[in-house]
Amino acid sequence: QVQLVQSGGGFVQAGASLILSCAASGRALSSTGMDWYRQPPGMRRELVASISSSGTTYYADSVKGRFTISLDNAKNTAYLQMNALKPEDTAVYYCALDSNGSGSYDSWGQGTQVTVSS
What are the respective helix, strand and coil percentages of the chain, to the nearest 5? Predict the structure, then answer.
């Protein structure tokens, strides 16, 4: 069974940086890649960034140029480096994994709160 454990997040002022981590067990991220979602207060969960097993990345337009997704295969951990944070980045952030290539997520991290003050 795949488990995802998140760390990082917190309360910062606009313009600051944060890094989120998502440590996986039970499946090698080098074979699956990872996606990061966020859910702002009162809004739907949205895809923020993804990285494939081959290293291809995708970013939502709202974070392009500010966020960077990466994998550390040795640590089996995914990261989301967030720079130049804005108040509209405030959300609960989740990592998500489709461990079997089924097209649907079978594992989610527990979520971590990111709050950006103006």
Answer: 5, 50, 45
The residues pairing with 1 across neighbouring beta strands, listed in sequence order, are none
Distant-in-sequence, close-in-space partners of 16: CB < 8 Å, separation ≥ 6: 85, 116
In whole angstroms, what is the distance from residue 15 CA to residue 3 CA? 32
Burial-class residue 31 by CB neighbours within 10 Å (0-12, 13-18, 19+): exposed
pLDDT digits (tens, 9 = 90+) for 46-89: 999 999 999 999 999 999 999 999 999 999 999 999 999 999 99
103 Cβ contact list (under 8 Å, min separation 6):
none
